[in-house]
Design goal:
With 223 residues, the chain is mostly beta strands. It has a domain of 153 residues: UDP N-Acetylglucosamine Acyltransferase, domain 1 (3 Solenoid), CATH 2.160.10. It is globular.
Length: 223
């Protein structure tokens, strides 16, 4: 289970949420703590760099936020991030430095590391996206099981209890998700892996892999 740990998935120098993630072993354990962390951290942010734009909403002065975007706190939008037309941020969201939240993209209870891109019609809920991870147009995280039972992470022949009803996906650093893909509840994708377009993904995808379809995951070849 070491591959599911924060230390294997993320470079914590690339997120303002490092102090939160350092307090837990597995990334989904941080989901219930995002709101409180934002409120505590926001009060300490440098007022020369951040503005408080509403109740528990802190936006870096260098960030670009479209006037049509809807933002509900608690939320921190870091330096040089871009929030595009009709983005919908529903609260408990950390948007990292240089990250892009695009047209009609919806965020809820998430941590986006620096340079993350969710630029076109994405839904990202109850999830953590690592440094420079990218979700193609229309790809989403599904965060609630159809039977409404608690989410388990499938790791080989093991089923890991999370105790969570809502759990989307944990994407490691530099993960690429193809257009139109669905990341089912409890998905964990290792660093530098690629997901083919139109995939339905569940369970653990090893780092440096290519996910072609269920049951067909291959290791990337060294160039």
């Amino acid at each position: 289970m070491d591959n599911l740990k924060i230390s294997k998935l993320y470079d914590l120098t690339q997120t303002i949420a490092a102090p939160l993630l350092e307090t837990v072993e597995y990334p989904w354990e941080a989901l219930s703590k995002i709101s409180a962390f934002i409120k505590e951290t926001g009060e300490k942010l440098d007022k020369d760099e951040y503005e408080c734009k509403g109740e528990n909403i802190w936006i870096a002065k260098s960030a670009k936020v479209a006037p049509t975007a809807s933002i509900t706190g608690p939320c921190i939008i870091c330096a040089d991030a871009e929030i595009r037309h009709c983005a919908f941020i529903r609260g408990n969201a950390i948007v990292g430095e240089g990250a892009v939240v695009g047209n009609s993209t919806e965020l809820k209870n998430v941590i986006l590391f620096n340079k993350v891109q969710v630029p076109h019609y994405n839904y990202v809920g109850d999830s953590i996206l690592g440094y420079k991870s990218h979700m193609g147009a229309g790809s989403i995280t599904s965060n609630v099981k159809s039977d409404k039972k608690l989410v388990k992470v499938a790791y080989g022949d093991k089923k890991i209890e999370t105790g969570l009803k809502k759990f989307g996906a944990m994407l490691g650093d530099n993960v690429e998700v193809g257009c139109g893909s669905v990341l089912n509840p409890g998905t964990v994708v290792g660093r530098e892996s690629n997901i083919y377009p139109l995939s339905s993904v569940r369970g653990y995808v090893p780092e440096k892999s290519i996910y072609k379809k269920q049951g067909e995951v291959v290791t990337k070849q060294a160039e």
